[in-house]
Design a protein that fits this description.
The protein is 46% helix and 13% strand. It is α/β, with parallel strands linked by helices. It starts with a helix and ends in a 7-residue tail after the last helix. It is globular and about 35 Å long. Strands 1-2 form a two-stranded parallel sheet. It has a two-stranded parallel sheet with strand order 3-4. It is built from five helices and four strands. Helix 3 crosses helix 4. The chain has a domain of 87 residues: Rossmann fold, CATH 3.40.50.
Length: 127
Amino acid sequence: VPFVYEYLGMYPVVIGVKEVGFRSFDYLKSYLSVNCLDTAVLVNPDQYEMLDYLNKTEAAIIFGSSVEEKVSKLADAPPEFIPLSFPYFDKILLTTRPLIGFNGVLTLVENILNSLRAVSSPKPVTT
C-alpha cells in the first residue's frame, strides 16, 4: 500500500487480504489511519463481497490473482487487472518476473503502464 499510494499516487479504495499476521494487519490499519485513507479492508473476502465492493467503489485497477481477475470481469464497470499474486492461470511465465526489490518495482510499474496504455488507446469504430 505505501508504494502504490506514496510513489505512484494511486488511492487504494479497497484492500482484500487472504492471510495476514497480526503485526502486518495492525501496520496496515495504522498506515491507513495516519494517512487519512478511508480504505475498506476485507479479510478473507468471498467473491460476492469482493464484487460488491468493486461495484460500490468503481475501482480503476485491481491487483490480484486469477480469482480476483474473474471477479473483476463481473463488475458493473470492470477495472483493469494486473496480476500480482498466484495462482495466475491466464499467462505462461518462463522468465523471472520479480515483484520485490528494484526489479520488482520495474515489473509492477511496467504492468501498470501497459494497462493504462490499453485503456487510453482509441478503440476501432465499426459501422
